[in-house]
Amino acid sequence: MNHPVVALLDPFHPAIVEIIRKMLPDGWELSIATDQTDAARATTLQKADIALVMATKMGAELFGQAPRLRFIQKMGAGVDNIDLDHCRNAAIAVARLGAGNAIQVAEHAMMMILAASRQLVAFDQRVRGGHWDKEAARGVIHHIHGKTVGILGFGAIGRRLARILTGFETTVIYNDLLAAPAELENELGVRRVGFEDLLAASDIISLHVPLTDRTRGMIGPNEFAAMKPNLVLVNCARGGIVDERALTQALRDGRLLGAGLDVFGSEPPGDSQLFTFQNAVFSPHCAGATLNNFSKIAARAIANAEAFLGGRALPLDDIVIDPRALT
Fold this sequence. Notes:
Elements: E1 5-8, H1 14-23, E2 29-32, H2 38-45, E3 50-53, H3 60-63, E4 71-74, H4 84-90, E5 93-95, H5 102-117, H6 120-128, H7 134-138, E6 148-152, H8 156-165, E7 171-175, H9 182-188, E8 190-192, H10 195-201, E9 204-207, H11 221-226, E10 231-235, H12 244-252, E11 256-261, E12 280-282, H13 291-309, E13 319-321
Parallel strand pairs: 1-2, 1-3, 3-4, 4-5, 6-7, 6-9, 7-8, 9-10, 10-11, 11-12
Antiparallel strand pairs: 5-13
């Protein structure tokens, strides 16, 4: 293969495209989708050997337009937008970037916890509108010092959030299928509890689990009913984990102090009922998307592509599918 072609299917900012372009090895070509239509993405993939993918859904129709595709690099950790069964059958390698944006997502979750607890968006809008509601604010906003924070999913992001929270003198509990090492629990001052216990004990819950059959819809009506009143819920993981109708009802009933969502079940979410609540804060699935982190992300992605095309081993934590191991 003389000149590998790298496809970019997502609407990356020009600054991000330039970072990727500068990191490509000599002779590699970049093929960029001109828009977000299926036709434009299919055209971009026709001669691609490699695809660098963020949120684009890689399904059967797109794969049918990519006869040369050999390697897909997800520019993040979650691969729920890629048809992995097709990749296995077609011997297309898939890699992820585990913990590549753990710091960035944890910071974003912390920001949302504070913004929702302090009703920041609502009072920002009030001040911009000429209102000075100091005493109204005093009657509804909360600080987080001394609160119990429940972290659902204690991988790289959950652990980074726990580290940030040490400065706020909160009590941190977590739930995960696997217990963290005892030394880490002692260092961070955290304690593993059951799922139901986390729901019942937490003043704030931050979600950091992958989207799987087990986690889809795991925060629904029954879970909201089991939570403390005036809870803050933050989701910087995947939208399908939270039943958005149940969240809407919990906000409407006044059960929650606030909510912060970086992700939605359908993205973009359209005219969601959630947008009617002033005690909720939203962002466009950008928790891990910081400009000053992307050079590291791009470097890892290109290094993985080079390793695969060169017949070298991929980092174990990054491998999702390696057809070389299946032969």
